[in-house]
Amino acid sequence: MLRAANNVRRLEVNFNRLPNLSWLATQDFAALQILSLAHNEITGIASVPRLAELRELDLRANQVSDIQFLASLPGLEMLDLGSNAITDLTGIDTVGGLRRLFLDRNAIADIGPLAGLDNLEVLDIAHNRPASLEPLASLTELQRLDIEHTGSRELDTLFPLGNIEELRIGGNPGLDCASIGRAIGEFGSVAVVADTDCLAQAGR
Prior knowledge:
This protein is mainly beta. It is 8% helix and 13% strand. It contains 2 helices and 9 strands. The chain has helices at residues 177-187, 196-201, and strands at residues 10-12, 34-36, 56-58, 78-80, 100-102, 122-124, 144-146, 166-168, 192-193. The longest helix has 11 residues, at 177-187. The chain starts with 9 loop residues before the first strand and ends with a helix.
């Protein structure tokens, strides 16, 4: 038990082999803003207490597959679900205030539900296999986007993203230098992080 749990604003419980979040309901974390639970063994999350003040949640490197629990956390601005077992993003739109979202190293094929997260500034979907990048075209606030190792073959659908400061596209052998060159022309050579041979041809 934590003394004065209702005054705790930041809580880190990483690398502890936690299987679930049931313990969160045993105390009143009314003021909690940042919760880090990375590198545990969390699988299914049936529910979590409604943490009204929670702004950042780190669940990296667990075994989470179902994200319906996010409906209880509408105030989130940063969410890290990298290196989990997620295949379905249904319900991600319940946290519409997200500004930073990390979904790398999952098994996500349909990124359509991301289209409603129009406040996103940072998005990492590296090491997934999305069928299409088209849903990202509406995320015009994006500044940093990582699509490395996603099997992407074209970048033109991303050109509406006029605020991009960093676009990571390495590890996609299906992208030819012509496509990368067009991206450099759109976003600038400083913004695009790609295979060095193509960047050299583009005059970087």
